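ugh ok fine here u go
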Amino acid sequence: MINQTNRKKVVEITNLKKSFGNQVILEDISLSLYEGENLVVLGKSGTGKSVLIKCLVGLLSTDSGTILVFDENITSASGKELALIREKMGFLFQSGALYDSMTVRQNIEFPLRRIKKELTEEQIEEKVKEVLANVGLTDSIDKMPSELSGGMRKRISLARTLVIDPKIMLYDEPTTGLDPVTSNEISELIVEVQKKYKTASIIITHDIKCAQKTANRIVMLDKGNVFKEGTLEEFEKSNEKLIQSFFN
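structure:
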């Protein structure tokens, strides 16, 4: 577990509540993310993991509670303030969400041209090649997304996210739909990104192998609440039936 002494909180969620009609999704969630750590949010399908991450980036409004990102309150931020905060955050969607009509190069250039407008064409080219090298897909630069496997698309999506140098990475079920070998490669890549880019990351997953590979700390959600928080070792030694259902 990463030593949190003297580490700055980059995300602090306090008493977060979110419902859809009469259905309570997040009843009372409080958790923190520290600089440089990988925090895995674990839970069965339907426990509110993806809703939590969408609230964190302002894609969903909250009913009550606060979400601080770099000490800025997401829940009360204006559209312009929210846009500036999002520029410091990378979001790897479950689907990958590449633009099918664009080449790999164009997909990765897209956020650079929108956010880093001061870059020259040479700097853009250099940045695109750098992130592709970091995900091991330099040779795919002029391919279309339809020519790539599921695992390759996920890597390209990660490269597109990393190209703007995010301080926080958010991974929504990064290994879902991938075969075991590719899932393991993506989990290893998440750890490499943490080391190389010094990111703080929240990894939403129900894949225990991904959690075991990537987690510095784990928060388990159940029925809209934090069920347990601790290290991987603490989870693996737990006698709680819910936790054992994941680890056994």
